[in-house]
Design a protein that fits this description.
The chain has 478 residues and is of the alpha/beta class. It contains 15 helices and eleven strands. It has helices at residues 14-34, 46-53, 64-75, 97-108, 120-136, 152-168, 185-193, 214-226, 249-259, 277-282, 314-321, 353-363, 365-388, 416-433, 460-477; strands at residues 145-149, 175-180, 201-204, 230-237, 262-267, 291-294, 307-311, 392-399, 402-407, 440-443, 446-452. A seven-stranded mixed beta sheet has the order 1-7-6-5-4-2-3, sandwiched between helices. A four-stranded antiparallel beta sheet has the order 8-9-11-10. Helix 7 (185-193) links the parallel strand 2 and strand 3 (201-204). Helix 4 runs antiparallel to helix 12 and helix 14 packs across helix 15. 43% of the residues are buried. The model has no long low-confidence stretch (mean pLDDT 97). The structure holds pyridoxal-5'-phosphate. Pyridoxal-5'-phosphate (PLP) binds next to helix 6.
Length: 478
């Protein structure tokens, strides 16, 4: 035996594992129970973090409990709490406890979710949950398909690889892709990853409501055709991250049909709104897309990481991503037994479907529907409240639970430059107080405060409370 002890087995004893596991669970439950009374914002510099953590890889072991205690005390508190009711910025990640435990189980058993042969139940649950989503989005359930990804960025990338394969084959030197100036940056990243040149991208301006300007889109396509180029794909947004705006999906669908273009919809932010009545009305036309990206780790309450791509025809995915090395030959199986490594980029994949499955089963679809509707209503209530105030101006109305506004008291007539500075400073003071995460965005050259209210545990009182702090800060500033 080359080793004197058993350390090379990387194991704890059964008793140690239990103690460790119980402490981890206790820590998570305590966090769920007390997070609302914590401050959502964490601020720390590189120097401070280096001081806490910088070290060489430790050659020698440390007592397992000591490591866990250190992480609990130092690592976990130095992250912003995106599940906090006053975490309004970017896109919050409201999460839910059942899915957290599901992820723990999936990781605990280290389930390989690549092929049917390795874990038939994991593949089956991905098929089952994908069918739930296909039905919700009114996609063909027999022919349709999809895959869970790490997030919306990967879902968009997977969609665009598929679109290019289906429409351009190997030569995409003349292919042109269209998206609006409000489209999410992950789309441009994906286009760049795919090797398109800048000259192959058309950024279509948006109208005053932040929707893709249809006339400008039509002009761009016509001009490209005249130049002998090959328009091949339009990316529409179903809920832009900035304002929640949905592009005119039905009109874009029509253009895609007549021009024979691939219709991709980035619904990573707003797609989940299909669960509510108001949302599904706004999202009309989404069912006409060739592919839709959604992001369960946002508004479907899953912990990171979980994105999803839906396609009208599952064969498009297998035709794009099947690549058989010799060692995978023996596990082909029956075609109905899907090997998800043939439907996307990853071979080895974690078991993402489990959390979606377990949380849906536990809470029921109706609870998810109520949660999404609640947030859309809450944002509308906030809008009505802001409009009644002499201090606030609504810059973009509540849309799919996003609202943009700015401090602009009537009668003061501050210059645009001054208003930008005031609102920027309000955000800075709120964030510095760490009581709420509220940052700015820029809309039509104005610095505005943006609230994304998709956390079903955020109350109207939470928002009122934050707005009151903003007003108090404003009085200090002006
Ligand atoms: C968040 C978002 C993405 C990117 O998704 P990730 O999960 O962060 O990778 C893409 N598009 C839109 C509209 C988004 O809101």
């Amino acid at each position: 035996m080359p080793f004197m002890d058993n350390s090379h087995k990387l194991q704890l004893s059964k008793e140690e594992m239990k103690q460790y596991g119980y402490q981890v669970i206790d820590t998570i439950v305590e966090h769920f129970d007390t997070e609302n009374s914590k401050k959502p914002v964490s601020l720390a510099s590189r120097e401070e973090m280096d001081l806490l953590f910088k070290t060489e890889a430790p050659e020698e072991p440390t007592n397992y409990k000591e490591v866990l205690d250190f992480v609990t005390a130092k690592v976990l508190p130095n992250s912003s709490i995106v599940t906090h009711p006053k975490s309004y910025s970017f896109v919050p990640g409201p999460s839910n406890f059942v899915s957290v435990m599901a992820d723990t189980l999936a990781t605990g058993f280290n389930i390989f979710s690549g092929g049917w042969a390795a874990s038939p139940a994991a593949a089956e649950l991905e098929i089952v949950t994908m069918n739930w989503l296909l039905k919700l989005f009114k996609f063909p359930t027999k022919k349709g398909g999809g895959i869970f990804t790490s997030g919306g960025s990967m879902a968009n990338l997977t969609a665009l690889v598929t679109a290019r394969r289906q429409r351009c084959g190997d030569d995409f030197s003349k292919a042109i892709i269209y998206l609006s100036d409000q489209a999410h940056s992950s789309n441009i990243k994906a286009i760049r990853v795919l090797g398109f040149k800048k000259e192959q991208i058309r950024i279509i301006p948006t109208d005053i409501e932040f929707k893709m300007a249809i006339n400008k889109l039509k002009n761009a396509i016509a001009k490209d055709r005249l130049e002998g180029l090959q328009p091949f794909c339009i990316i529409a947004s179903a809920g832009t991250t900035n304002t929640g705006t949905v592009d005119p999906l039905n009109e874009i669908a029509k253009i895609c049909k007549t021009e024979k273009l691939w219709f991709h919809i980035d619904g990573a932010y707003g797609g989940a709104a299909i669960l509510s009545q108001k949302g599904s009305k706004l999202l009309k036309g989404i069912e006409k897309a060739d592919s839709v990206a959604i992001d369960p780790h946002k508004w479907l309450y899953q912990p990171y990481e979980m994105g999803c791509l839906l396609v009208r025809n599952h064969k498009w995915l297998s035709e794009t991503f099947t690549e058989k090395p010799e060692y995978l030959r023996d596990i082909e199986g029956n075609p109905s037994e899907i090997n998800f490594y043939d439907h996307g980029i990853q071979l080895t994949r974690r078991f993402r479907a489990l959390k979606f499955y377990m949380s849906m089963k536990t809470f029921g679809l109706s609870a998810f529907k109520k949660a999404v509707s609640y947030s859309i209503d809450l944002a509308e209530e906030v809008e009505a409240d802001l409009r009644k105030s002499a201090n606030w101006e609504v810059v973009s109305p509540a849309t799919l639970a996003v609202i943009n506004f700015r401090y602009n008291p009537i009668g003061k007539n501050y210059s645009e430059k001054r208003l930008d500075a005031i609102n920027q400073e309000i955000s800075k003071r709120v964030v510095d107080s760490r009581e709420a995460l509220l940052v700015t965005t820029v809309l039509q050259n104005q610095v505005v405060l943006r609230m994304c209210l998709i956390n079903p545990r955020t109350t109207f009182e939470d928002v009122k409370d934050t707005l009151k702090s903003c007003e108090a800060f404003a009085l200090e500033i002006i």
